[in-house]
């Protein structure tokens, strides 16, 4: 298998066939595109999500909190806390652990969540720090949103701009190389995207204003997320290329490495479907969150419409960020 997320067909064959007992108090079970599980607790639902940070070499502790809490918010729930598992390479010093924990603390304070626990270990099994986060949230039992909730003729909306996380990671990790070819202003702007990687506000506003389906756009980028929303909902989807918001910094950096911004990890942006997309976009904009209608949920077929071309959207492959080699 290629580096990155395990392909959907492999998950279906080997993972989703081995999930133990299906419990009646679990309201949302594991499935393609569903980043969270939902457990019934009286009139409330407890939302759980787990994610590793592997693509970034810097600020991974901070990203671990932000990205996992985005998943909770994509369910329409408010994050409460995180559990962090930190694996460090053999020979790591104490200062590395301290730096990671300071980053985790920063992210947790920004989102008003508690670090509930976790595990830390030094092991020869890894050659760089690996952080895996489990995030916990809560909402009313009948208020959570599913990736699989998209309805026929829903508008398809994205928040902010595509590729924010990937652009930040590349600009940060390859800064010394890129500064020889790209203006410092462009690179510094790209590095500032870290301040926009939380989509918690996006998710909570959307859940309260008519979202039928939400999905955090992570590995595989917009096209991967669009595929997963349609596949999970048993619907089709059409995305219009000329409507997709991509910032100039992302275009420049992706062009330099010859990678596709539509398949680039994009935490900070959320894909949302709603029967009244204009209303939802207006509500997001009132809260100073960029939002754009980029497509429609259809009966069948998954397509990117580029002028007069209709390009099939395929199951997400390895994220574009893994194709960078220097």
From TrEMBL:
Residues 154-302 form the PurM-like C-terminal domain. This is AIR synthase related protein domain protein. One of its GO terms (biological process) is protein maturation. Transmembrane segments: none annotated. It holds the Pfam family AIRS. Residues 33-138 form the PurM-like N-terminal domain. PANTHER family: HYDROGENASE EXPRESSION_FORMATION PROTEIN HYPE, HYDROGENASE ISOENZYMES FORMATION PROTEIN HYPE. It comes from the Bacteria. Belongs to the HypE family.
């Amino acid at each position: 298998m290629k580096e990155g997320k395990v392909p959907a067909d492999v998950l279906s064959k080997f993972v989703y066939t081995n999930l133990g007992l299906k419990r009646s108090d679990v309201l949302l079970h594991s499935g393609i595109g569903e980043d969270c599980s939902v457990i019934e607790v009286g009139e409330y639902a407890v939302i759980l999500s787990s994610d590793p940070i592997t693509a970034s070499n810097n600020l991974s502790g901070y990203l671990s909190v932000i990205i996992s809490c985005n998943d909770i918010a994509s369910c329409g729930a408010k994050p409460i806390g995180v559990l962090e598992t930190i694996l460090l390479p053999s020979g790591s010093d104490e200062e590395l652990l301290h730096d990671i924990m300071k980053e985790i603390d920063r992210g947790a304070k920004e989102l008003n969540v508690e670090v509930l626990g976790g595990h830390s270990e030094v092991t020869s099994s890894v050659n760089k720090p690996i952080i895996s986060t489990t995030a916990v949230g809560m909402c009313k039992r009948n208020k959570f949103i599913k990736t699989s909730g998209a309805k026929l003729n829903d508008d398809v909306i994205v928040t902010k701009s595509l590729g924010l996380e990937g652009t930040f990671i590349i600009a940060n990790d390859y800064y010394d190389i890129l500064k020889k070819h790209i203006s410092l202003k462009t690179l510094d702007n790209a590095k500032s995207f870290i301040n926009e990687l939380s989509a918690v506000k996006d998710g909570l506003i959307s859940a309260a204003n008519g979202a039928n389906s939400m999905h955090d756009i992570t590995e595989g980028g917009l096209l991967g997320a669009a595929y997963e929303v349609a596949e999970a909902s048993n619907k089709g989807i059409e995305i219009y290329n000329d409507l997709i918001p991509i910032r100039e910094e992302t275009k420049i950096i992706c062009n330099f490495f010859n990678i596709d911004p539509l398949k680039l990890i994009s935490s900070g942006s959320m894909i949302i479907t709603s029967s009244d997309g204009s209303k939802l976009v207006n509500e997001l904009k009132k809260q100073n969150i960029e939002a754009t209608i980029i497509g429609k949920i259809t009966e069948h077929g998954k397509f990117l419409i580029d002028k007069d071309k209709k390009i099939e959207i395929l199951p997400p492959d390895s994220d574009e960020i893994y194709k960078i080699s220097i």
